[in-house]
UniProtKB/TrEMBL annotation:
It comes from Cyanistes caeruleus. It is found in: Cell projection, Cilium; Membrane. Its main location: other. This is Transmembrane protein 17. Keywords: Cell projection, Membrane, Transmembrane, Transmembrane helix. It is a multi-pass membrane protein. GO terms for biological process: non-motile cilium assembly. Pfam families: Transmemb_17. One of its GO terms (cellular component) is membrane.
Amino acid sequence: MAAPTPLPPSLRRGLVAFSGSLFINNKTWDSGTVLSSLPLQMMLYFNVYYFPVWCLAEGIMLHLKYHLLPWHYQFLLVTAFLILSLAEGSRLYLGYLGNLQEKVPELAGFLLLSFLIQLPLLLFLLTDIQVIHLPLEVPMHSLFLVFLLLEMVAAFLALRIMTKQLAAQFYLRQFLEGGGDCEHLSVEEVLSAQASSLES
């Protein structure tokens, strides 16, 4: 018998539905192995807590040096800050969703946002000599860059494993639909049989 909860029933149902959409119960439909990347998930977890600190510090530093910058750098830095802030929220969401639910499109979107938007803007903020660097700014951006690079490597490795597993499931499904008897075969044996049949 379940213990009574102090939460109202409507709030409890909403939380259960929300957590059910993020954390699915069965992540191992066919393979029996979990494909989610623990290192990527750990980095995403810590990045979720670091991002508001970075955002607050960058906002304060931008406010302090704003009047010292030329007008075009004022525009560039405010735009870069806004784009980084907006892209980071969606990037972290896609990373969580793609990694925990083992969804390739979301994880690929996370990787593309990281590589095409976040990395160039962060490198601009770190390396441009016309940007006035305050003492706290370089360590904050450097730590953000380390998070970004490590997450990109971990996401690439996780994406490679997930796509390899999806390809194996696809070939196994094709083999089974073709009438093959493969109950006693492993995935590697099925893939090698599929590859040899494709070569001939």
